[in-house]
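Hi Y.,

Following your request, here is the sequence exactly as I used it, all 192 residues.
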Amino acid sequence: MRIGQMQGIGNSIPYGINDNGQVVGEEYFPLPSKYSTAYLTAPNQPILPSSNLGSFGNAANVAVSRANVVNSAGKVVGIAGTITSASKAFLYDGAMSDLGTVGGMNWWPLAINDSDVVVGAVAANGRRQDMHAAVSYQGTTADLTTLLPVGANWVLQRAVAINNCGSIVGLGNNMQSGHGYSGFLMTPTQAP
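Below is the corresponding structure, written out as tokens. Let me know if you'd prefer a different format.
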């Protein structure tokens, strides 16, 4: 099956699919408009105009949004904003809601489990080279490194996946080992 396009003129880029066959991604519209819009398809169906998730109430032709992943309940996480404003993390469950910031900085959600725990990354100090892993649950978003025990000597830089048991994997830097970047697996014992 061809996923297709919402308006027949954009480039459809899928980023995720759930077990029900719902696909998420973005449709990018080239010059002169240069905008993208997040989409969520019905199970095992192509993109339709009704697949458009929008962008925090902004007009579609100035919106910039991208759906990254969808869980089994059809809840979607991604980023959305306008051409003139920074993109914000969102959770879509029939409507787009802002997932907030981490220390006042916007972040990029990369995964959601079936308990609606979202993980991703934040550009600490506003710089991409200073990435920190982030977690969001029930309206609270936090830097994942702050949930480590004191003296752990890790800077968790990007959380890329979370399973339904709450285990999180990603990329971090073990400051004590001196080995640079390394994969991590953790299961937080406290909410953010």
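The longest strand covers residues 154-162.

Thanks again,
Q.
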